[in-house]
């Protein structure tokens, strides 16, 4: 009972399919007949009843299309005379269509391109081809692309050429070329100024150290004879020495910073634990003096510039030791974990492509609104009388980390210690 | 005790003074007449007829007019007569490049100029030590 309507629909559908197949066959046959020239008129049943289409009307549609298209179109005889052209071509050469028909096509090609055109004209009878020439347009010349294709018509073989105006394209190309040249020049200027700047920093630093060393030497000599000096003078000598020592550190730090701009990063597989162990030895005296503790978890091997990454840890650990709370032994915890993405909020991932290194201390900390400022050159949050340093250390650390395609940030609260976080790629 | 004979090439007058002043306090070293550049080093050495009177160590300032430290070093190492004399390069600012180039050309030590009297004492100790070890190698050669 239930199957009956379904059966009926199925039969209907099959019948419909049969009809459609018949129509499709008929249409295919008609198209084939038109293509091979077997018919010159056909009747199509449209919305307004039967309509007669002749080949003439079809031809008209093509002519309309050729007439309306944006390219110039010409048909040329084997002798090279123009048999037909569209309005666009007439506009391009600034002549009327009647003037054009019957003239040699060659006469519209700029003299310097005629030889080229002749080659194309020879070649095109065997193979369709393309070429670029200048087209004469009254007083002016227009760059065009010629697409040559031969047509075998009942009246014999003829050549049809489509002409595409290349003015805009050429202008764009020219502009591109010019801006490329400009870019190259700017690039070169930048490189030069970068190089100059590095040279300047290097020379300035070298030459600044010369007189500075003299100041230190002479004060050292005077301090040797200080038993003959009044107490005040001794104190002042010490101040001169301290200032000179500070300036020396500054110069070396500026030099280090400027050298980081050079593109000469040499990477090697580096054991980060080894770096920390070396630094612990370097800081041995101050660690003992402050009774500091540095706890290091197992850290990964990273493909980095060892010297530079050592500098990063050196600057951060030295900060942690320097900015300890009075009377509280510094405790520094260094840990690491693999993360999925290059961002500080990234979730952990055992085989993640990045490594987040954390250096946490229990020092004086800072207000976290200053977090971006601490990585700027010469930025200090504490007076230098209380805490020595040049204010370049963290700027150097940031630059190094960024040169390694990494990121650095700091989390802190006043009085609650600081945590530096560094993200570096695993390879 | 044989005193270590040091030849210093240094164009800076203050540095000449530091060097000679601090060396006067020691009885283990003798400073030969100070010369002002590399060319004068060669001239002075060439004028010494008796090989026994050549310096035990030559200290070259890197930044000198005419012939700088490294150039002089190269010249000395290419000479059969002087190649075995240990050479120290010293400079106000000693960077990795200078250490690398100096070592490559055969300097026995590359140093930064000292900042204090103690620094000079240490430097002269280092020089004497460098001489001592090279004297040993020389004797080995002779055997």
- Overall CATH class of the largest domain in chain A: Alpha Beta
> How much helix is in the residues of chain B?
40-55%
CATH superfamily of chain B: Response regulator
Structural class of chain A: alpha+beta
Categorize the overall geometry of chain A. Answer: elongated
* H-E string of chain A: HEEHEEHHHEEEHHEHHEEHEEHEE
CATH homologous superfamily grouping of the largest domain in chain A? Histidine kinase-like ATPase, C-terminal domain
Based on CA inertia axes, which overall geometry of chain B fits?
A: globular
Round the mean pLDDT of chain A to the nearest integer and report it. Answer: 83
Radius of gyration of chain A: 42 Å
For the largest beta-sheet of chain A, the strand count, sense and barrel status come to: 5 strands, antiparallel
Question: So how many helices of chain B?
Answer: 5
Q: Estimate nothing, just give the exact number of structural domains of chain B.
A: 1
CATH fold-type name of the largest domain in chain A: Heat Shock Protein 90
Instruction: Characterize the main sheet of chain B.
Output: 5 strands, parallel
Look at the structure and give the mean pLDDT of chain B: 86
Strand content of chain B: 15-25%
The class by helix and strand makeup of chain B works out as: alpha/beta
The number of strands of chain A is 14
The helix content of chain A is: 40-55%
Task: Fill in the CATH topology of chain B.
Answer: Rossmann fold
GO cellular component, one term (chain A): membrane
Organism (chain A): Paraflavisolibacter caeni
Coiled coil (chain A): 10-37
Domain Histidine kinase (chain A): 203-427
């Amino acid at each position: 009972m239930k199957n009956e309507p379904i059966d009926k629909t199925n039969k209907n559908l099959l019948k419909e399919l049969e009809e459609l197949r018949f129509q499709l066959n008929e249409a295919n046959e008609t198209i084939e007949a038109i293509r091979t020239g077997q018919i010159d008129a056909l009747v199509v049943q449209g919305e307004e009843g039967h309509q007669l289409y002749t080949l003439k009307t079809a031809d008209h549609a093509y002519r309309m299309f050729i007439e309306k298209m944006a390219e110039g179109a010409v048909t040329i005889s084997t002798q090279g005379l123009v048999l037909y052209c569209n309005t666009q071509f007439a506009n391009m050469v600034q002549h009327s269509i009647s003037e054009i028909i019957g003239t040699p096509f060659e006469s519209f090609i700029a003299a310097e391109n005629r030889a080229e055109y002749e080659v194309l004209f020879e070649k095109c009878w065997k193979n369709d081809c393309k070429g670029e020439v200048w087209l004469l347009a009254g007083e002016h010349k227009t760059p065009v692309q010629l697409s040559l294709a031969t047509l075998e018509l009942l009246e014999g073989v003829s050549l049809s050429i489509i002409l595409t105006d290349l003015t805009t394209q050429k202008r764009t190309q020219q502009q591109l070329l010019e801006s490329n040249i400009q870019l190259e020049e700017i690039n070169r200027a930048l490189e030069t100024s970068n190089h100059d700047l590095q040279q300047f920093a290097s020379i300035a630093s070298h030459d600044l150290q010369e007189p500075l060393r003299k100041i230190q030497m002479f004060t050292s000599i005077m301090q040797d004879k200080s038993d003959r000096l009044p107490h005040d003078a001794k104190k002042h000598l010490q101040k001169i020495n301290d200032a000179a020592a500070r300036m020396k550190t500054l110069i070396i730090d500026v030099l280090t910073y400027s050298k980081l701009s050079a593109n000469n990063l040499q990477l090697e597989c580096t054991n980060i634990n080894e770096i920390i162990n070396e630094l612990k030895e370097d800081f041995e005296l101050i660690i003992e003096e402050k009774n500091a503790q540095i706890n290091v978890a197992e850290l990964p091997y990273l493909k980095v510039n060892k010297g530079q990454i050592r500098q990063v840890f050196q600057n951060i650990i030295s900060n942690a030791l320097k900015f300890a709370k009075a009377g509280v032994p510094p405790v520094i915890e260094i840990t690491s974990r693999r993360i999925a993405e290059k961002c500080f909020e990234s979730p952990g991932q055992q085989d993640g492509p990045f490594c987040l290194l954390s250096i946490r201390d229990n020092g004086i900390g800072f207000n976290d609104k200053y977090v971006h400022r601490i990585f700027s050159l010469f930025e200090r949050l504490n007076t230098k009388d209380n805490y020595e340093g040049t204010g370049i250390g963290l700027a150097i650390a940031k630059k190094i980390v960024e040169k390694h395609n990494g990121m650095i940030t700091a989390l802190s609260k006043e009085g609650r210690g600081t945590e530096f976080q560094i993200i570096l790629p695993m390879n | 005790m044989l005193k270590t004979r040091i030849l210093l090439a240094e164009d800076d007058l203050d540095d000449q003074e530091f060097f000679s002043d601090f060396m006067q306090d020691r009885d283990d070293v003798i400073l030969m007449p100070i010369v002002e550049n590399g060319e004068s080093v060669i001239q002075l050495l060439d004028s010494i007829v008796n090989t026994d009177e050549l310096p035990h160590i030559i200290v070259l300032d890197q930044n000198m007019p005419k012939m700088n430290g490294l150039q002089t070093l190269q010249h000395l190492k290419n000479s059969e007569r002087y190649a075995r004399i240990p050479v120290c390069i010293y400079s106000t600012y000693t960077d990795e490049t200078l250490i690398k180039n100096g070592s490559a050309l055969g300097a026995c030590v590359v140093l930064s100029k000292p900042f204090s009297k103690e620094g000079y004492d240490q430097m002269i100790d280092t020089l004497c030590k460098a001489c001592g070890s090279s004297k040993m190698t020389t004797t080995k050669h002779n055997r």
